[in-house]
Amino acid sequence: MKSRKLNTIQDLIVSNYSISSNGDGKFTHSFTPENTDTVYSFVANGTPELEAGEHYSIGFYIEDDNKIVDLSCVAKNQGVNPVLSYLFAQQEALDKHAVNKEKNDTRVTHQAVDGYYWGKKYAWREFGMHLPQGAFHAYLKEIDHPTVPCLTINPDLPYASNDRSMAYNEEGLTDAIEALVTSAIRVTPARFESPLYSKRFMIKAISAVTDKK
Fold first, then answer.
1. Are strands 66-76 and 40-44 parallel, antiparallel or unpaired?
2. What is the dihedral of CA 158, 159, 160, 161, to 10 degrees?
3. Is the confidence at residue 114, as pLDDT, over 80?
4. Which domains does the chain have, with CATH numbers?
5. What radius of gyration, in Å, describes the C-alpha atoms of the chain?
6. Smallest Cα–Cα separation from 181: which of 139, 133, 125, 134?
7. What is this structure's pTM?
8. Which of 27, 73, 91, 168 is deepest in the core (most CB within 10 A)?
9. Predicted local confidence at residue 159, as pLDDT
């Protein structure tokens, strides 16, 4: 997965699609979204990758003021692109990392000394917002990701509360979630399967990625 800042557009109509040779066996593909003059491009083989007039959700990076499309983050708007949803969720988590970590540090207590541990809520916000919370936790339980018992407190409540829960070791969390995403196989318009997980699961569309549920 790439670490640069991913930008996304959830629905655009491809127009002015063109392919030009770079002279080295590769080709530059470029297009503008309908009703704009903004040019997006990517390098690929000479075969068309997009269809003019069709709706797409895309991910792209800005390099020297050029908008470079990541083909692994392109989805025709007929279903969810797992990688695009994951990368979008990770960017959202990165933007809120300081807040999530501060809450995790002050609201989750445990006795582990072998690494950094995330409480269940904050682990999901940091690593898995593209998945429903239930699927996120069930998958990590099934693959036996390391956990420790913990206590959580919510200072926003009008009464003191120490709830027993568990926290996940940060080490390996990113790899575990990326493995699920990259191995996901669509079996229905809304459901996926993976050889790493025994149950079918949903991956959220970009528009549904939120830390509220």
1. parallel
2. -100
3. yes
4. 7-76 (2.40.50), 82-208 (no CATH)
5. 20
6. 139
7. 0.69
8. 168
9. 55
